Amino acid sequence: MKNLLKNPFSSKIALGTSTLGMIVGSAVFSLSAQAGTITKTFAQWQAAPVTIGDKLFTYGTSSNLPTSPTDTVSFIQDDNNTNQYFLNYNFVPPSSITAFTLDYTVDVVQSDPNVTRFFKAVDSDTTVSTFPPAETLVTNFVGNTPGSSVTLTSIGGSPEVSLIGGAPTSLAVSNTYTSGGAGGGPITSFQNSFLQDARINTLSTPEPTSMVGLLVFGGLGLASKLKKRSR
């Protein structure tokens, strides 16, 4: 069975932000770790937080989940843009659940005192078989800085994406799903997505023998794509 994972950050949002790289000698060092996927059962994630790249995902509370002991949660760092992360909940098998909630936190793990990474955009999406009245996922993202709260609504499998202000380094994420149809769904998966940016805090004077490079800024040109991952 394949799970459809959509890239929410399409060209309709022109993110005029910057990614960072540091050239030291002839090598270019990315500010994000290697891309990859970590998949856990829901029970495994409840028992222990998951770190992927520089993101820490910590379970909070839930209701009516999991729908099956075989449900999984995938934590993904995009292989084409390592500043983009996904939490993807997979219903195994697809479920006709009429309502559920899931709350968790996601934190940026800072590793460089000269650079602060922060969340720049978020997304919410579902993979459902729709029939009136539509299946709805409402996701609240509440950051740890002023002005960093966003509420998104995915209706009938349509994604919603938004920039998030305040440069938060931690987000409390609350998902509330309802299905108006008799018996619900069925729902195959839902996801929350996160795009990060970075800023320079301080720059120490480099030793002439240790640094011959400079800081480079590049635009985040994100194109639409469909990303399929196999379970």
What is the strand and helix layout of this fold?
Layout: E1 2-6, E2 18-24, E3 27-30, E4 36-41, H1 42-47, E5 50-52, E6 55-63, E7 72-77, E8 84-95, E9 99-108, E10 115-128, E11 135-143, E12 149-155, E13 160-163, E14 170-179, E15 187-200, E16 215-219, E17 226-230
Antiparallel strand pairs: 1-17, 2-3, 2-16, 4-7, 5-6, 6-9, 7-8, 8-15, 9-14, 10-13, 10-15, 11-12, 11-14
> What number of domains?
1
Strand percentage: over 45%
Task: Give the tally of β-strands.
Answer: 17
> What's the CATH architecture?
Sandwich
The third-level CATH topology is: Jelly Rolls
Shape category? globular
The radius of gyration over CA amounts to 19 Å
Order of strands in the sheet with the most strands?
Answer: 4-7-8-15-10-13
Mean pLDDT: 77
Portion of residues within helices: under 10%
| Low-pLDDT segments, ≥5 res | 1-6, 9-33, 205-231
Largest beta-sheet details: 6 strands, antiparallel
Termini separation comes to 6 Å
Structural class comes to mainly beta
Order of helices and strands: EEEEHEEEEEEEEEEEEE
Name the CATH class.
Mainly Beta
Count of alpha/pi helices: 1
Describe this structure in words.
- It is a single chain.
- The relative contact order is 0.27.
- The longest helix has 6 residues, at 42-47.
- This protein has 1 helix and 17 strands.
- It starts with a strand and ends with a strand.
- It has one domain (36-201): Sandwich (Jelly Rolls), CATH 2.60.120.
- It has one helix at residues 42-47; strands at 2-6, 18-24, 27-30, 36-41, 50-52, 55-63, 72-77, 84-95, 99-108, 115-128, 135-143, 149-155, 160-163, 170-179, 187-200, 215-219, 226-230.
- With 231 residues, the protein is mainly beta.
- The protein is globular.
- The strands form 4 sheets. The chain has a 6-stranded antiparallel β-sheet with strand order 4-7-8-15-10-13. Strands 5-6-9-14-11-12 form a 6-stranded antiparallel β-sheet.
